[in-house]
Amino acid sequence: MPSPIRVTVWNEYRHEKENPKVAAVYPDGIHVALAGFLGNEADIEVRTATLDEAEYGLTESALDATDVLIWWGHKAHGDVADEIADRVAAHVHAGMGFIALHSAHYAKAFKRLMGSTCSLKWRDDGEKERIWNVRPSHPIAAGIPEHFELEQEEMYGEPFGIPEPDELIFISWFAGGEVFRSGATWQRSHGRVFYFRPGHETFPTYANPNIQRVIINAVRWAKPTVRLPDKAPRADALEPLAR
Ligand code: ZN
Questions:
Q1: pLDDT per position as a tens digit, 37-75
Q2: 153 - beta bridge partners?
Q3: Residues 131, 48: Cα–Cα separation, whole Å
């Protein structure tokens, strides 16, 4: 059996401690909810890390031992040191997979990888979201129906300030009328990046079987094929050079 995919689920873990409405949905934190269903997969080995740990649990050695990093953050993006956001981005360029969930569209590491504003429209009124699977042949969409619904979610609307995705997999429609590119992939140097929209902290979105299936599929898709830290050396000629 091949070695398991080593996943780190990172969560800023602030809403759950400060807002009883969030604690009621995710009593142990969003990271524990995500790690719970991922850890049930035989080929996935999961650990969690949070903002209040030393170096947020994202030391060089922790990232070296991470095949795919999942990121959930919202209110404390600014508390993440630039140095560690740069470190995460460097690991993605070297081959680590990166999955940005929901409000991680504004995470420093995600913005570095996108190189764009990553801004969007939003409305936290708990409306219906219908998610359309527009690329059913993609491994991230395996087992996902043509469309499914979340009864209550925060609305995210276009325009979404992302670079043109390499692959657009999901589009959301909201009861209020907006649409949004909800599932998109990018290659960044040797690493694969997936953004997946659903997952507002006051709704039980991560308990939805289709949402769980997408995240499990995305871990398998994003696992590294190589791990090549960036360097730019002077190269000796392989053949004699005429003078
Ligand atoms: Zn939200």
A1: 999 999 999 999 999 999 999 999 999 999 999 999 999
A2: 127
A3: 28
pLDDT in tens, 126-170: 999 999 999 999 999 999 999 999 999 999 999 999 999 999 999
pLDDT digits (tens, 9 = 90+) for 97-113: 999 999 999 999 999 99
Residue 216 Cα to chain centre, angstroms: 11
Q: Output the CA 25–ligand 1 centroid distance in Å.
A: 14
Q: Tally Cβ neighbours within 10 Å of residue 181.
A: 21
Contact 162, 120 (CB under 8 A): no
Alpha carbon of 196 to ligand 1 centroid (Å): 12
Three-state DSSP at 110 gives helix
Instruction: Determine the distance separating the centroid of ligand 1 and the alpha carbon of 124, expressed in angstroms.
Output: 7
Residues lining ion ligand 1 (Cβ < 5 A) are 103, 154, 200
Q: DSSP class of residue 192?
A: E
Burial of 175 (0-12, 13-18, 19+ CB in 10 A): middle
- Give me ligand 1 centre to Cα 182, in Å: 13
The ranges assigned to domains in the chain are 5-115+182-222
- Residue 75, both tokens: 């209110």
* CATH code for the domain defined by 5-115+182-222: 3.40.50.880
pLDDT at residue 150, as a whole number: 98
User: What pLDDT was estimated at residue 243?
Assistant: 79
